User: Fold these one by one.
Assistant:
Number 1:
Amino acid sequence: MKYSVAEGMSFTRSYAAEMRLLDFPSHPRMNCSWEVPVPHLSPQTLTQAEQRTLLRATSGNRRDHLIYSLALGTGLRLTEIVGLNVGDLYTTGGKPKNRVRLRPEIAKNGRAGDVFLPDALLAKFRRFWRHNAARRDGLRPEDPLFCSQSRTRISPRRVQFAFRTWQVKAGFDRLYPFHCL
C-alpha cells in the first residue's frame, strides 16, 4: 500500500500531538491546526546592580571603563565602539561632542546615524582627553579613539576578553557576553 507524503505527515502530526514529542509547523494544504505555546525569552542583560559593580571595578582603567560606559549609556554595538575615531567624538579643541555621527563604514549595514551622549559620559570623555594628552596618545581626528598597548586600534576580540576578565574581578556569579551591555 502506498501513502502520500501529506498522509504520512498527517499521521506523524497526529501521533506527535498525542505523544507531545514533535512540533511541526502547520502546512497550508493540511487540515491540522494545533499550536504549542512558546515562552517568550528575554535577552540576557546586566542588572543595575551588576552595571554599577562593573563600572566600580573598572574605575581604575580609563579605557575599559569608558568603553563599558559608552556601551551602557548609548547602546552602541561593539564594532561601532571599536571603530570610533577621535574626530568622531571630539572637536579640534578637545571638547567632547554632544551628538556623535556614526560613519557608514563602522555602522551596521552601512547605515550612518546619530547618537546623543548623556551628560555623565561627556564628563568621562573630558577626563579621557586629559589622560590621553598626558600620555601623548594620538589626538588627531583620524586616530582611533580606543587603542591597545601597542597604540593601534583595539580589536573587538580584545574588548570581549577584557569584559570577561572584568566580570571575574567584579565577582559576577555568571559571565555575560559583551552584547548584554
Number 2:
Amino acid sequence: MSSASVRLAGTVTDILTREKTEPQQNIVDALAILAGVAKPKHVRKEKTPDPRKAKRLAHNASTADLRAFVWERCGGKCEASGADLGSAWELHHCQGGPSRRREQRPGNVLALSWDMHRRVHRGDLDALRAIAKAGPLDAEARRAAEYRVEKAARIAGVPVRIEVKETANG
C-alpha cells in the first residue's frame, strides 16, 4: 500500500475557497466533518414518519397476537381437516375483503394447513364445507363461510348440505 502526501497550506479561508485536487478536497471534507462544521455527504436526511408504516406495524403486532391465540386454540391441528400443522400453517379469514380482514378477531379466523388454505381459495367444495363445519367460528363468520359453500355448490351444480359442529360456547 503506497502512501500519498497531500499538502494544504494557507489560511482556512484560502484553503476552503481555492480550487483543490480530489485528495485535497477529501481531506478538507473530513476535517470539516470532524470539526462539526459539515455533515457527511452520504448521510441521509431524517425522514418524517410514515403513518402507513406505523399502521402496518400495529397490524403485524395484532396478527402475531392472534396467531399465538389461534395456535393455542387449535393445538397444532388444522381446524378444517385435523391434520398436523407443523410450521407451514396459515390464518384463514372467513370474512373476506381488506376492511374486514383488518378486523382481527378470533371468531373470524381458522388455523389451516397450507394445502387446505390453498384449496379453500381455489374454491374446492370439500374444503369449503370443512371450513363451514369448523367449530370456533362466530355467527357472522359462519354465515360468510356457508354462503361461500352455497355459491361454490351452485357453480358446481351439486346440492348443498352443511352439518355444523356444536361447540361449548355456542
Number 3:
Amino acid sequence: MDAVRYYIALVLVVTMPPVLLYWLLIHPFIRFWRRLGAALTSILVWIVLGLGGAGLFLARRSLLGPDFGTNYFLVALGVLFNVAAIWLWVVLHPHLSISTMLGLPEIAPKKYPTALITGGIYSRIRHPRYVQIILYIWGYALIANYLAAYVAVALWLPGIASLPGWRRRNSGSAMARPTRSIAAGCPGLCPNGVGGEIKPF
C-alpha cells in the first residue's frame, strides 16, 4: 500500500501544477493564442507543460515531503470521491468532446464551434466537469496522504474558481449573454433544482 500511495502522490505532484498551468496560460492570453491557431498553440503550450512536469519529476525527492502514512478511513473516503467522479464522467461524457475538454473551441471557435448545453446535469449545475475534477484529485490525495499531494490539489481550488470568469470573457457575445443570464439561478458547483441554459465548460 505504501508503494501505491507513493506513486499516486508522485503523479499528483508532477501533473497537477502543469495541467492547471495549461488553463492559466490559455485563458488570460486567448487573443494571442487565437492568432497563432490551435495547432501551434497546442505544440507550444504542451512543450512548456512537458518541461514543467519533467522539472517537477527531477525534484520529486525534495517536493514530496512528509508521508502521513496509510489511513484506511481516508482511503475509503478517497475511493468514495472517485466513485462519485466516475459517475459524473458517465453523465458528462455524452456532452463533452475531446476538443471541448482540451479547450479548442476557445482557441479556434470557428474551426471548433460549440453551443450551450441546455439539458441533463447542466440544467442544475453550471460546471459539473470542475466538480468531477475536484472529486478525482481530492480522492487520490486522500488515498496518498502525502503533504505534497494535498498542496498540489489545494492549488487547484483558486485556479478552478478563476476559470469560469475567464471562460465567460473569452466566449463570443452570443454565448456570454445567456451564460450570464442564468448565473444567478444555477449554482456553479453545488447542484439545485433550477434549470437553464448552461455553458458546456
Number 4:
Amino acid sequence: MNAITIRQLNESDAQQVSSLLQCCFDYLEENGFFPTGLLEGQRNIYTETKIMSLIQNPSTVGCGAFSGGRLVGFLWGTRSHGMLYLEWGGVAPEFRRRGIYTRLLRTVEEETARLGCHKLWFFTSEQNTPGIRAYIKQGYTIEGRHPKHFLKGSFLSIGKVVAAEAQPIAA
C-alpha cells in the first residue's frame, strides 16, 4: 500500500475531487444520512467546473489525501468574517477508518489559523453519530441544532476555535 500524502488541492485535482464527492454523496444516502434523491441538487452543483472554480478561489482552503497519485480523501471550506466554513469532505470507502479524515482536518485547522481565521465551523447531519463522536474527540463543540434545515434534514452546527488569541470570553 502506498503512503498517504496530504497536500493543498490544485486545479489538476478538480476531476478527482468531483468524482470522490459523488461517491461520498452515495455513501451519505446509502447510510441514511439523507433520504435517497435529496442530494440530487448537490450532485448537480458540484461538477468538475464548480470544483475548479472553488479551488481557484482565494477564499477556499482545501487539501487532499493522495495514495500513489490517486485522491483518496479531501476537505475544503471557505473563509469569511475571520472563520472558515467547512463545505464538504470525504474519504474513499476503501481508505476509511485509517485516520485520513483526521489528518485532513488537522491540516485545514492549521491552515485556517495560519491565515488569521479564529474558528472553523460546519453543519453535519444529526444522523452522523460516528462523525459527531469523532469531531468531539478532536475538540469540536456542538453549537446548535437546526431541525428541518437545509436539504430538509436536521443538522447540528459544530465548531472549534483554532487560534489561541480568539478564545471565547467566559460569561
